[in-house]
């Protein structure tokens, strides 16, 4: 199953879960858990489809729990998380020092759970038949803060003199942070004359609507829109490599493959409904990643996820918590 990224939370999923539960829905057909309460998650638009799918599946058998998932970007999500407004934050990059300091100042403790692997995908218009592969140096020439590249033939003389129109994630996006770091050598270092958006669908529309368009976002959004966009192979020195599940997992798609995270609050995990949701997320991580068309963790990564989550539960004192202890 694939989920298009809306600009609002997915509380409507609770209605679906209720309907399915009333009809005996769910993979096991078991009765409702009896848990109640609300789980609030925000953050990365890239991680959104994973967490949204986990929320939808969880609510099928836990209709008393409302899981709200937003997508304000990794940075925007951490702002809310470190103000105590959410129970967890989706992130397409590790937490920054200043974000960690903000959480510490607010007394919010947390842990990082790696839930999947992604390949940042550079995309061009379907009519672009020339830029099938770009080197990381060419990407830097296009996207560096001092770049004056304005047409494709300035990237490579063999390319046509087609104006380049650039689209990319907004500055609150973890994808923006990661891409600028590995391509331009400094997080946040980018030319500013591009069309930014925290909504990846806006980037899709921009690139698909412009012959000279170029953009980048998570691999799952390329897969969803492969009929209207071309993915560019990347050459970081060892030849052209296509973004794919296999190349992201085996490390050959460098430097644009990356882990994806969820940061739960330890205090939130002390609430049974939050602990139950994340236990479900961890237990079903592989099927959730596959269902959302992401790259599942390998065996060692999955073992590490389980260990990290168990450690968080221990910190929260949530192991063995009963539904009756749920916060109101």
From TrEMBL:
Keyword field contains Chloroplast: no
Annotated Gene3D superfamilies: Periplasmic binding protein-like II
PROSITE patterns linked to this entry: PROKAR_LIPOPROTEIN (PS51257)
CDD domains associated with the record: PBP2_phosphate_like_2
Database matches in Pfam families: PBP_like_2
InterPro entries xref list: PBP_domain, Phos-bd, Phosphate_ABC_transporter
Span of domain PBP: 32-284
GO MF term (any one): phosphate ion binding
UniProt entry keywords in alphabetical sequence: Signal, Transport
Keyword Signal in annotation: yes
Protein's name in the database: Unannotated protein
